[in-house]
């Protein structure tokens, strides 16, 4: 098999290059971890506990309180905006030191978390549409559907009383979707923490609260059980101090007794104008994520696609396995697995952006590998035989005769895959990458204008995809393919 | 002197025993024509001569090297054996001239300028001098096959293998290709092994005709012996069938 050596060596060099490149990417982040900064996870779409304000800076009870405590106790905080569930998993995998996200202390969570002293006592209330006069209490819910946000105390409370009052539950990932479901009438009511619902109503959501706070639960900072004792101690000391000097009350008043917001312009262009920088940044992040991922996915896919046509069983097996594995896995699962799973195995933190690139490299790369392999295989076998019969070695035959013909067949698939990659970046909002979709979620969490903001986001995606299509058609024409 | 010596050659695909003990010798300047019914193993036999098929057992000695052995540098042996396929297999991504130039340039046999000169000369030999820049797809079948012959000749082989070179051609094209092959045999004294159904060609050009059926050589001899005085029953029935057509 010696005669194949040059091709394989060439592929090996590429694979090693890939690994090194990824290593370089993550190297500077490792040194960050050595600094005396706590990585704190938070759910950025949970006002008034945490949300992005009009200037798209993160504010809220949790943010302000944590910052005040950090200042008081002399440490630094680096907020990692993810979803609530994403933060839970990142804390459990050691990606983050802790989380403040309006997190209730529950017996179940105590199994895997250690908590600080509670800094707030929240109660769940029920809200209905403003013009709904039929639902006045829990008893009126029989046979109806109610909406809750996943993982919230509201959701738990609803579950605990579901049997007694006989209603159905719809769950959503974002508050705005919960409210929307009630306003459209799909659900008759929703349950959430009182401050959260009050904030929504202040923002102009046409809901009203119809019950008294129930099932009060303490809210606290959470860390992975048995870790980060120092953080918990500093938090408790700081909280006690702030309560004494009045700063705690100031923060609470600021958010819990907020005035009704009437200044915001909620028209399409008003929202666009207010958020244009934020959306632009999200767009740039999406573009950057797409470009980097496409480069890595292409290298990865071409290598494993070529492995699939080598005359050596081991490499062909490797290729089919990789294609089978990563093509068969939902992108969402793969992203969460890599972001939270790999640190659990290796003990090293992995930044969301790198996790995102690796996810897309593996997933899109598997598709690329499949059509690279397919493209080469669909070149007539006689072409290879003719080249080999002239005395050309396998690698040369591949490069001079087979690949040029195979690539031609692959071009439409490549363009297609690039567009899919762009769209798939939106799924990475789940691990908190601040790309276009996540940006949209955050804006909506504040202004609760889901329809208008999603329309903007959709238009931006369409514009980019159109540009990308034009670009690839131009390349296609230039290359005379 | 013997150029190719095949001894007790077997080839098996799973439980399909295609070649079942073939002995064959091809001497310098000799033209050997292989005939036989469809599926009898002619192509398989021809393709083991340059290891496009790997023999299951037996030896295939070409220029003194047993290419059936493991670890042989087969590329070096192939440089000296040209092969022409039934379906031409011209490189679709290259022009006619570049098809011919690819191997000598890539393997460092000729500089680019010399390869251009040689390609033009070879196109002259096969009667296509003005097709150097033509694209492969613009050629007729007969022209394609003549380019394929020129391509094989570009490596300066001293053995040429032909696997039914005319059976994919329209009847009016067959003559052109056969004429090139005759020229090769008669003027250049090329050693050739030809699988074909063109009995006229066999009668006129072959030094020896080999009849393969059921994975073995049933009978071999001069064209006169094979066509006019066949002994083997299978050969007799094969001849009667093709002469009917
Ligand atoms: N790659 C392969 N795998 C499995 N079986 C094969 C393969 N190549 C050839 N065979 C089988 O070997 C037998 C002989 O095939 P071969 O092509 O040598 O016949 P042939 O004499 O050239 O026939 P034809 O005149 O039709 O070209 C056939 O039964 C064929 O199905
Ligand atoms: Mg055949």
From TrEMBL, chain B:
Signal sequence, renumbered to the chain: none
Domain of life: Bacteria
Gene3D superfamilies listed in its UniProt record: P-loop containing nucleotide triphosphate hydrolases (3.40.50.300)
Domain ABC transporter: 4-239
InterPro entries: AAA+_ATPase, ABC_ATPase_HisP-typ, ABC_transporter-like_ATP-bd, ABC_transporter-like_CS, MetN_ABC_transporter-like, P-loop_NTPase
Keyword ATP-binding: yes
Keyword match Cell wall biogenesis/degradation: no
A Gene Ontology molecular function term of the record: ATP hydrolysis activity
Keywords tagged on the record: ATP-binding, Nucleotide-binding, Transport
PANTHER family in the cross-refs: AMINO ACID IMPORT ATP-BINDING PROTEIN (PTHR43166), ARGININE TRANSPORT ATP-BINDING PROTEIN ARTM (PTHR43166:SF37)
UniProt-recorded name of the protein: ABC superfamily ATP binding cassette transporter, ABC protein
